[in-house]
């Protein structure tokens, strides 16, 4: 019992520890903010971000000091961890909220039907007017073609891995799907570019689709694999026991059971490649005119449009406005895809008994 | 070391669902009290209210009083962390910290409460492992991970971990339900030894076990599914198993339901 | 022992054993034309993926070797990128330095914050807040990088002036934080923007890992009288450590290959600058995007060569992440 003596000595035999009142974190936070404002005014710091950082630091230090004095060291550490976690959360919220807020605020300026239905064909980059019609066409065609290539290949590969795959081949495929997931988009672009250099081709929309398909395939394989693994084996066996051939079992039982999850995975992959700029920059080149043929001639694309409005306009406000509006359109498209996909996932989720 | 627990009018909720209602009882120091009853009658919930673990579950809250030698665990200004240090707990499934060695597992609670000299730690770890009848089996591999032990050894490791901080009370939530008969026997023997030093409360599904290890037995029941669990009666174990005062207890013990 | 059997009962049935049985049946009955076609199609798709990977490696290496053979500088050490001159002189030293430094700083900034946010969602936030926060951060992971780039160039860059002035005033003596007052389109700004970009993905993966910490490990710590922070340190962080590491590697991979956000924010020069605050430096991906427009055929091959190096670096990072994940699988398998 002798060893327990120090522990008992530190903590009063009663269970009652001195505790700070419930409102104390708020009070310390308020104090930190006030103090930070004072320091900011006196010190002549003009950036509000710095005020915020000082307030955060004061909050954490203040919490530790006060809690250590009243509640003891362990409790103080606990409170510091809590306050640090909150401060980190708030620090992270600021840029992410600012991103969304700025895009919406500056995007709505020129975002209207006219903007959606006109190209940049007769508008100089520094002039107001024009729109993203040609870019939307380009993006839809490029992403659509990429999906047509990548989705079937990705789903079939996943089917192979889950339903047939044993041995070295499937191990190799699994490994390289992982590797493929990590390929930077610009490297995928360079790969297609090297083919184009060999074949001596000019930029065109479908070249971009090929690069996007490379980026999309591993994502589809991964998500489809996960979904197929959730299909209970009893279902497969029940169907096989009825004498249904394996390929029909897969087509009629396995895939329909997991179709919700597969759709979600494909949609998330589509959302991801829709925002890819780098390969499109290398392979599709961009244009101010409407080009509906993805197999011939340069095309525009929404993310590329944003970049070119920003980079080629020498600081013209009209171009920046268009860039923000296009960014708003792109974010809206990607977000809607994401929300719908997640909705489908929730709605169609196989009941796994969790 | 050991303290008396006095519960009065205790009701516990999960969100809006009332899990147990209006329970009052006294747990004697240096004795083993067993909680028995059918599944879902709230005996585990009640056990978890005794060291304020119930409120860890989302939506969990408690009304009523739990006095530990005259001090209300739910009183104003009581620190739940101090309560849990004073009232140790052993769980249904052995849960040693998987990344820690056997030694570190036993020392974990002590290290929380301040810095110890290595020799002090060594002493406490050895004494606790001996107390849990595990010392001879693990003394040569104290630095190996605790997850490498068998299920029964892991459970005794968890008991060693719990008694290392010298709690007043030891709560055991079906400590043998995941173990084989031989490990179960080892734990039951251990409980018999531990009651010399601690107040022990044990939840068990196994009535023979309750009859073997406990001095007093409390029978819990619920009137219908979805209704809160209640304490039917608490008495000396011998009396509960031979001549209970409530009919439902007798029905349960003789296997007529549950 | 008991536990592992119980686990298999609860988890969705593992496909391995029953499917192996199915497979045997299939190979016996694979004479059916439908089965043969379907197996051929799905196996063909898998093989096609392998062919693509091989083709990427082969074609990049081929074009890169063309470029390097014409290079009159040293490809690894030359501090120049003049591909349009005769003879061309170029090297990747500056790009490798810029890419690695910006990504590592981004990681150092993002990982602690991401872990904190993940803990916030799983352990600290009130329940009414944690669900929506998790959902929003999920969505933010999908925001295209070009939008981060636009925001970085037009919103973040002007905001950096204050911070840069402050850093220069107090830490300028280190050399790393000295600032000559140019536009803050520098490596540090790039790193901060990259950190903001990879924050959601690291947060999401870490959050999933923390959520999987078995309740019983946390209760073990609680029952010993641990405070919330001590519970996290004793059971949540050790359990989640390898998951967090692989999440960080994932973020690192993204940061290494990020093109547009760097291209919009950085004002590149082709040299290595001791100061993180003065404009200058460059990264592989940014250099490709910026130099591509003016590059001749040989210049494009040179860019492809630099892309090949980037490819190899990201492969190494992803490989490391895989090794860590595999170890984690072994580890949790032993304790399941």
From TrEMBL, chain A:
Topology in the membrane?
Answer: Multi-pass membrane protein
**Which molecular function GO terms apply here?**
phosphate transmembrane transporter activity
Q: Which UniProt keywords apply?
A: Cell membrane, Membrane, Phosphate transport, Transmembrane, Transmembrane helix, Transport
Q: Name one GO cellular component term.
A: plasma membrane
Please state the span of the N-terminal signal peptide per the UniProt entry: none
Q: Where are the transmembrane segments?
A: 23-43, 49-68, 80-101, 143-162, 174-198, 204-221, 253-273, 323-345
Domain ABC transmembrane type-1 spans what residues? Answer: 136-341
Set out the biological process GO terms recorded for this chain's protein.
phosphate ion transmembrane transport
**Localization, UniProt:** Cell membrane
Question: Which CDD domains does the record associate with it?
Answer: TM_PBP2
Tell me, what does this protein do in biology? Part of the binding-protein-dependent transport system for phosphate; probably responsible for the translocation of the substrate across the membrane.
Family the UniProt entry places it in: Belongs to the binding-protein-dependent transport system permease family. CysTW subfamily.
Q: What is this protein called?
A: Phosphate transport system permease protein PstA
UniProt organism field = Streptomyces olivochromogenes
Query: What lineage is this protein's organism placed in?
Result: Bacteria, Bacillati, Actinomycetota, Actinomycetes, Kitasatosporales
From TrEMBL, chain B:
User: What SMART domains does UniProt report for this protein, alphabetically?
Assistant: AAA
Q: Which domain of life is it from?
A: Bacteria
**Any idea which GO molecular function terms this record carries?**
ATP binding; ATP hydrolysis activity; phosphate transmembrane transporter activity
Instruction: Tell me yes or no: is Plastid among this UniProt entry's keywords.
Output: no
Query: Per its UniProt record, what CDD domains does this chain match?
Result: ABC_PstB_phosphate_transporter (cd03260)
BP GO terms, sorted: phosphate ion transmembrane transport
Encoding gene (name): pstB_2
Q: Which organism is it from?
A: Streptomyces olivochromogenes
Listed name of the protein: Phosphate import ATP-binding protein PstB
UniProtKB/TrEMBL annotation, chain C:
**Pfam families xref list:** BPD_transp_1 (PF00528)
Subcellular localization(s) per the UniProt record: Cell membrane
**Principal localisation:** membrane
From the UniProt record, which GO molecular function terms apply? phosphate transmembrane transporter activity
Q: How does it sit in the membrane?
A: Multi-pass membrane protein
Work out whether the entry's keyword set contains Lipoprotein. Answer: no
Q: Cross-referenced SUPFAM superfamilies, in alphabetical order?
A: MetI-like
- Single Gene Ontology BP term? phosphate ion transport
Q: Which domain of life is it from?
A: Bacteria
Record-annotated ABC transmembrane type-1 domain positions: 96-321
Q: Under the cellular component aspect of Gene Ontology, which terms does the record hold?
A: plasma membrane
- The ranges of region (Disordered) come to 1-29
Question: TM segments?
Answer: 46-68, 88-121, 133-157, 187-206, 302-325
Q: Which UniProt keywords apply?
A: Cell membrane, Membrane, Phosphate transport, Transmembrane, Transmembrane helix, Transport
Instruction: Check the record and name the NCBIfam families matching this protein.
Output: phosphate_pstC (TIGR02138)
Q: Which family does it belong to?
A: Belongs to the binding-protein-dependent transport system permease family. CysTW subfamily.
Summarize the protein's role. Part of the binding-protein-dependent transport system for phosphate; probably responsible for the translocation of the substrate across the membrane.
Indicate what this protein is called per its UniProt record.
Phosphate transport system permease protein
Q: Which organism is it from?
A: Streptomyces olivochromogenes
């Amino acid at each position: 019992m002798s060893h327990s003596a120090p522990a008992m000595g530190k903590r009063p035999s009663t269970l009652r520890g001195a505790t700070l009142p419930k409102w104390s974190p708020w009070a310390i936070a308020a104090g930190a903010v006030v103090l930070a404002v004072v320091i900011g005014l006196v010190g002549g710091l003009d950036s509000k971000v710095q005020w915020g950082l000082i307030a955060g630091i004061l909050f954490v230090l203040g919490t530790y000091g006060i809690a250590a004095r009243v509640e003891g060291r362990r409790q103080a550490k606990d409170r510091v961890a809590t306050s640090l976690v909150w401060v980190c959360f708030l620090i992270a919220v600021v840029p992410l909220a600012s991103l969304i807020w700025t895009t919406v605020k500056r995007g709505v300026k020129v975002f209207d039907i006219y903007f959606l239905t006109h190209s940049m064909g007769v508008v100089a980059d520094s002039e107001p007017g024009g729109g993203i019609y040609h870019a939307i066409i380009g993006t839809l065609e490029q992403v659509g073609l990429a999906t047509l290539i990548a989705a079937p290949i990705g789903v079939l590969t996943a089917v192979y891995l889950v339903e047939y795959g044993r041995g070295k081949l499937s191990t190799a495929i699994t490994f390289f799907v992982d590797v493929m997931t990590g390929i930077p988009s610009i490297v995928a672009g360079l790969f297609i570019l090297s083919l184009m250099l060999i074949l001596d081709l000019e930029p065109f929309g479908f070249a971009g689709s090929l690069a996007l398909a490379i980026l999309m395939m591993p994502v589809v394989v991964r998500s489809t694999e996960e979904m197929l693994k959730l299909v209970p084996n009893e279902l497969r066996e029940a169907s096989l026991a009825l004498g249904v051939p394996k390929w029909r079992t897969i087509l009629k039982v396995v895939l329909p059971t997991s179709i919700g999850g597969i759709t979600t995975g494909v949609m998330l992959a589509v959302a991801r490649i829709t925002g890819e700029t780098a390969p499109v920059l290398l392979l599709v080149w961009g244009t101010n005119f409407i080009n509906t043929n993805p197999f011939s001639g340069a095309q525009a694309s929404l993310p590329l449009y944003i970049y070119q409005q920003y980079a080629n306009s020498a600081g013209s406000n009209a171009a920046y406005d268009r860039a923000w509006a296009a960014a708003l359109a792109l974010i809206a498209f990607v977000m809607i895809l994401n929300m719908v996909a997640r909705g489908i996932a929730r709605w169609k989720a196989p009941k796994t008994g969790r | 070391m050991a303290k008396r627990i006095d519960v009065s009018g205790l009701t516990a909720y999960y969100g809006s669902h009332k899990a147990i209602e209006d329970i009052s009882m006294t747990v004697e120091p240096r004795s083993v009290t067993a909680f028995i009853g059918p599944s879902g009658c709230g005996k585990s919930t009640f056990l978890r209210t005794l060291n304020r673990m119930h409120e860890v579950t989302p939506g969990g809250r408690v009304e009523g009083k739990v006095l530990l030698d005259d001090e209300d665990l739910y009183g104003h200004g009581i620190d739940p962390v101090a309560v849990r240090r004073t009232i140790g707990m052993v769980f249904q499934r052995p849960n040693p910290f998987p990344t820690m060695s056997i030694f570190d597992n036993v020392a974990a609670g002590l290290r929380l409460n301040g810095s110890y000299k290595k020799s002090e730690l060594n002493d406490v770890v050895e004494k606790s492992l001996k107390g849990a009848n595990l010392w001879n089996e693990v003394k040569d591999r104290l630095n190996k991970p605790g997850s490498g032990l068998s299920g029964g050894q892991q459970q005794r490791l968890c008991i060693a971990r719990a008694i290392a901080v010298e709690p007043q009370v030891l709560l055991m939530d079906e400590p043998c339900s995941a173990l084989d008969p031989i490990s179960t026997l080892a734990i039951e023997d251990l409980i018999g030894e531990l009651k010399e030093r601690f107040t022990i409360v044990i939840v068990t599904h196994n009535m023979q076990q309750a009859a073997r290890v406990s001095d007093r037995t409390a029978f819990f029941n619920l009137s219908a599914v979805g209704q809160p669990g209640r304490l039917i009666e608490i008495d000396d174990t011998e009396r509960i198993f031979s001549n209970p005062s409530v009919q439902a207890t007798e029905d349960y013990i003789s296997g007529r339901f549950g | 022992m008991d536990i592992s059997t119980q686990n298999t009962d609860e988890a969705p049935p593992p496909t391995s054993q029953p499917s192996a049985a199915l497979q045997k049946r299939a190979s016996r009955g694979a004479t059916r034309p439908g089965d043969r076609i379907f197996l051929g199609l799905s196996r063909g798709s898998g093989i096609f993926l392998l062919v693509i990977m091989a083709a990427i490696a082969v074609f990049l290496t081929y074009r890169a070797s063309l470029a390097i053979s014409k290079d009159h500088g040293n490809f690894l050490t030359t501090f120049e990128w003049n591909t349009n001159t005769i003879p061309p002189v170029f090297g990747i030293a500056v790009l490798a330095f810029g890419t690695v430094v910006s990504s590592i700083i981004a990681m150092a900034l993002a990982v602690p914050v991401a872990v904190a946010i993940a803990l916030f969602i799983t352990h600290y936030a009130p329940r009414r807040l944690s669900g929506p926060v998790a959902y929003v951060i999920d969505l933010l992971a999908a925001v295209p990088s070009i939008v981060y780039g636009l925001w970085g160039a037009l919103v973040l860059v002007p905001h950096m002036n204050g911070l840069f002035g402050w850093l220069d005033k107090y830490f300028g003596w280190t050399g790393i934080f000295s600032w000559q007052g140019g536009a803050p389109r520098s490596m540090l700004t790039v790193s901060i923007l990259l950190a903001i970009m990879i924050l959601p993905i690291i947060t999401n993966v870490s959050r999933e890992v923390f959520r999987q910490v078995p309740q019983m490990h946390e209760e073990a710590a609680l029952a010993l009288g641990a405070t919330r922070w001590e519970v996290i340190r004793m059971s949540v962080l050790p359990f989640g450590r390898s998951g967090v590491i692989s999440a960080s590697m994932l973020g690192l991979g993204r940061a290494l290959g990020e093109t547009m956000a760097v291209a919009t924010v950085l004002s590149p020069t082709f040299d290595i600058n001791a100061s993180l605050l003065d404009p200058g430096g460059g990264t592989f991906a940014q250099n490709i995007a910026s130099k591509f427009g003016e590059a001749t055929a040989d210049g494009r091959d040179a860019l492809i060569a630099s892309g090949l190096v980037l490819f190899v670096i990201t492969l190494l990072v992803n490989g490391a992440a895989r090794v860590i994940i595999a170890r984690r699988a072994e580890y949790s398998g032993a304790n399941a």
